[in-house]
């Protein structure tokens, strides 16, 4: 991974201090993100390689960051060490007096990652029902060499069924309800059933209400852990409940008018939230639209197409998707080429 793939998140509440910190961070070759609104902390901070905070944001940063934190205070100081400890700061700096020292510390955080592997967090959602969202999410995870595939939809039939590993031992969502605090990505991968190296965190199936209910904070902590897996993660999600840790959303849109209309609305909402998204066209038994038509409707050029794959539904129903058909693999690879490279 190059240093440009490393993200420095500036979560500094004081606007004047934020500008000084931005000037120092910009001198590195890393990507710099300024997160001014605390409501955006859950979406940006878990993906950052290093976070910079001040006394106004220290408490919130501690809740959402798993990366090293640098604490800053404006000239002439002094450093509020109580606030620095609150955000588990690795180092503290008086800025701009110690801007050079801050830059040096940031550079040390950037350099070690240049030789390490990259991670990613992609969400796959459907613009309509029955477009094969879960199937494509699984194909994308396999082709991308992801470490984890996560069932992020509350009411799911189970990705372990799709992968043909429903008999494999390992934790499903209800098994992870207990516990609190941060979750380790490696431990999560080790706990869930696997298809090859791909760990699959799936929903469980029961005709009764689940006894173990996941609290939102616990669910978010698990999402954050998955997103930090060194080999990346793919989330099979619902359009209205996309995990905030995802950095890019893949929308599977049927080549049909109603699906395209729903896709247009979803693209607009994601762009308003400054969430990157791409469209993949799915041709079912009959397609009323071409990719060019969909591009005009949703104002987003599709990056891949999934043709009708004969026998796919039967294969999934009878034995799971143990072998991914070539057309599906090709579409997944085009997404990888466009989004991850």
UniProtKB/TrEMBL annotation:
This is Septum formation initiator. Residues 12-114 form the Rv3660c-like CheY-like N-terminal domain. InterPro entries: P-loop_NTPase (IPR027417), Rv3660c (IPR022521), Rv3660c_N (IPR059050). It comes from Corynebacterium striatum. Pfam families: Rv3660c_N (PF26563).
């Amino acid at each position: 991974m190059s240093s440009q793939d490393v993200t420095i998140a500036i979560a500094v509440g004081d606007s004047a201090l934020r500008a000084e910190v931005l000037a120092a961070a910009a001198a590195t070759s890393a990507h710099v993100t300024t997160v001014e609104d605390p409501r955006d902390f859950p979406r940006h901070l878990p993906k950052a390689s290093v976070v910079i905070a001040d006394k106004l944001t220290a408490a919130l940063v501690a809740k959402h960051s798993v990366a090293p934190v640098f604490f800053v205070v404006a000239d002439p100081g002094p450093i509020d060490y109580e606030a620095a400890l609150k955000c588990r700061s690795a180092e503290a700096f008086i800025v701009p007096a110690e801007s050079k020292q801050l830059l040096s510390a940031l550079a040390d955080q950037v350099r070690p990652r240049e030789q390490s592997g990259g991670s990613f967090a992609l969400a796959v959602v459907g613009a309509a029902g029955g477009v094969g969202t879960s199937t494509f999410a699984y194909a994308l995870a396999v082709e991308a060499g992801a470490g984890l595939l996560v069932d992020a939809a509350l009411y799911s039939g189970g990705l372990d069924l799709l992968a043909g590993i429903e008999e494999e031992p390992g934790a499903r969502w209800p098994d992870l309800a207990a516990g609190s605090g941060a979750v380790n990505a490696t431990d999560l991968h080790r706990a869930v059933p696997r298809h090859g190296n791909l760990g699959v965190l799936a929903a469980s199936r029961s005709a009764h209400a689940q006894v173990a209910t996941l609290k939102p904070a616990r669910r978010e902590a698990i999402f954050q852990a998955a997103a930090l897996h060194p080999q990346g993660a793919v989330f099979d999600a619902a359009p209205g409940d996309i995990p905030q840790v995802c950095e890019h959303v893949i929308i599977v849109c049927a080549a049909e008018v109603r699906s395209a209309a729903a896709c247009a609305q979803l693209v607009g909402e994601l762009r308003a939230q400054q969430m990157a998204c791409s469209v993949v066209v799915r041709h079912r038994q009959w397609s009323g639209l071409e990719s060019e038509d969909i591009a005009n409707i949703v104002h987003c050029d599709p990056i891949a197409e999934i043709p009708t794959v004969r026998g796919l539904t039967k294969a999934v129903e009878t034995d799971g998707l143990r072998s991914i058909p070539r057309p599906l693999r090709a579409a997944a690879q085009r997404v990888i080429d466009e989004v991850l490279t």
